What does this fold into?
Amino acid sequence: PLDSVANGIYTCDASPVSNLVAFSGYPAATGHLFIKDGAGPKVQITHDSDYVNIDSSRFTVTNSSDPVFSPDGTRLACFRESKCFVPGDPHEGEVRQDAFVINRDGSSPVNLTTNLDNAFFSGFTWTSDGGWVLFRSGTSHAPDGVFAASLTGRLVTGLTVLPGAM
It folds into this structure.
């Protein structure tokens, strides 16, 4: 095997321009992303303390999965689930599910779905120029729509998946 993570590796992708491999695993109760360069050691790029600001509230990342490299190998599209643990915050206890792009070292998260209601996002792929990320979305693990998001914040919705097409 390329590598291992306690409780298993669930999704993985290889960089189109280097020996890097990105994968998601659950070393404990939280899903995290890892990078491995050839025969080198694996490096965890998401951590229990990671957070994002959504609607002016701090949401701690509770799950990161489904990493897919950009065409130039510098970024990853992925799914993130986050929860607000801040006592007294108007969003305390709220869970958010979003599609993100991060640098391959886990830094500079960009939320592609800030203006969408909670959904499950998966099946990430990039356009060849790296300007858009396409992904599936639905209210459960069975997606019923396709979305396209640019890194500049433009989101195209309403690309419906026809029955039997997936």
In short: The mean pLDDT is 85. The longest strand covers residues 57-69. The radius of gyration is 16 Å. Residues 8 and 85 are 27 Å apart (CA to CA).
